[in-house]
């Protein structure tokens, strides 16, 4: 289709034969064109496209030509360390996450909250992460292949879907906790990789209907990250969880 985004798959310039073969296989699997780098610059190789999936020895990155984004733990690494040391971690505390919990992350993104939740619920728990941006969903899915969560963590099951639709068709009280962390309208960070995230992310903002859908599907609570408190938060049962960090976390009890 003419207006479909143009995505291509390629490799880093000096990729070896294994990486070349992997990139070709992925391109075929995803039904995307494969572009041979043949030692030329990325722009010369791929031309005018919306996004490039670049494979190299360390995995895959998502590039716009100017900036790129790679699966990484980022600040989630510190949060995971806190949990390992038995120290309080905000999401774990806000949702009162327990071993064995079944968590729905309705805004998967780079998967940081999902991976933290996976560690908090342990190997008997489960995390489902829903993402509606195909490039971001793929970035996380590929990143998981190179990520060692360890025995004390559950796995994260990524799902490519719109989470409003997913919530609508999910059974009532089918997840212990639902996490909502949509894109902020006025983000503070603006480095290159964050701009890649913003370019591909679903920009839809939090509203009361989304929180209500999440509360219907939650058995214990819904946890929300938001840049500010909207006027309707209290009528949806959302209360601020003190975090002390840069991000505001809110909690609402299950049940719409
Ligand atoms: C701020 S990021 C989430 C970051 C994530 N909590 C983390 O820790 O990495 C928001 C993500 O939610 C996704 N998103 C927004 N609306 C969505 C929807 N209706 N369904 C599924 N994903 C959605 C965006 O595409 C974006 O990737």
UniProtKB/TrEMBL annotation:
Pfam families linked to this entry: SAM_MT
UniProt xrefs under CDD domains: AdoMet_MTases (cd02440)
InterPro entries, sorted: 16SrRNA_methylTrfase_J, SAM-dependent_MTases_sf
Gene Ontology MF terms in the entry: rRNA (guanine-N2-)-methyltransferase activity
Top-level taxon in the UniProt lineage: Bacteria
Protein name: Protein-L-isoD(D-D) O-methyltransferase
Organism whose genome encodes this protein: Candidatus Lucifugimonas marina
Lineage: Bacteria, Bacillati, Chloroflexota, Dehalococcoidia, SAR202 cluster
